[in-house]
Design goal:
Layout (H helix, E strand, L loop, with lengths): L1 E4 L6 H12 L3 E4 L13 H4 L7 E3 L5 E3 L1 H11 L10 H28 L9 H21 L13 H16 L13 H10 L3 H17 L4
Helix pairs in contact: 1-3, 1-6, 1-8, 4-5, 4-6, 6-8
Bound molecules: glutathione.
């Protein structure tokens, strides 16, 4: 059986879980040690020498890291139901949305993610303000491209929904701990999308799994 090495707290495996769920691919979930704590990663480094989650291991033992690449492989191995549009332009739009998330939004959030394991009193307030403003700028890019039919692109689920769901969940529900202005408020299309995508049966489920793990890590779960 296919194995997914992952944690529920990380937003990156969420997009792979969405693919597995939507396409009905039988799989086993393994949560390696040392991803969100200081334990040794041990044998997980044999599976993924990069040491991050997710990693996918196929039935024949071949292992693949990097969420985006894993999703593309699964799309090719299990083309139905499709999570990519039929036309080239549509597929490019889906890739663009995932890229905006990975390259701009996640990168802008990184200083906050690194800060959060330390007590709030030790946070550098200027660094917080700078990071919150960078997230705001990156969300403005998303606002330009996000779909208006309840999905990131078009009128059905694509890989961009798996990428964006857990990241918008962090922006909307986790970032308030930094006491900046509500992250999505300035962006009506993104706000509408965020509300709508949580109503999708499959995306709603994986977003909620990540939400519960984030709440638990915040001591609120
Ligand atoms: N570009 C990677 C990012 C994966 C990633 O950064 N995962 C984090 C969890 S949020 C991780 O495993 N960190 C462990 C570490 O850096 O030691 C992907 O999309 O799969």
């Amino acid at each position: 059986m296919i194995k997914l090495y992952q944690t529920y707290l990380s937003p990156f495996p969420t997009r792979v879980r969405l693919v597995l769920l939507y396409k009905g691919i039988e799989h086993e979930i393994i949560e390696p040690a040392g991803i969100h704590d200081s334990r040794e990663k041990g044998e997980y480094l044999d599976v993924n020498p990069i040491g991050r989650v997710p990693a996918l291991v196929l039935e024949d033992g071949r292992a693949l890291p990097e969420s985006e690449v894993i999703c593309e492989l699964l799309e090719e191995m299990y083309p139905k139901p499709a999570m990519m549009p039929k036309d080239s332009w549509g597929r490019a739009q889906v890739r663009l949305l995932s890229r905006i998330s990975d390259i701009y939004i996640v990168m802008a959030m990184l200083p906050l993610m690194n800060m959060v394991s330390r007590p709030p009193k030790s946070w550098d307030q200027d660094a917080v303000t700078r990071a919150v403003s960078e997230v705001d700028k990156s969300l403005a890019f998303l606002e330009e491209y996000i779909g208006e039919e309840g999905y990131a692109y078009g009128s059905s689920l694509t890989h961009a929904d798996g990428t964006l769901g857990p990241i918008l969940q962090l922006a909307d529900e986790w970032m308030p701990i930094f006491r900046g202005p509500p992250a999505l408020a300035k962006y009506p299309k993104t706000t509408a999308y965020w509300k709508a995508i949580q109503q999708d049966k499959f995306a709603g489920q994986v977003i909620d799994e990540t939400r519960q793990a984030v709440l638990k890590a915040m001591g609120r779960g």
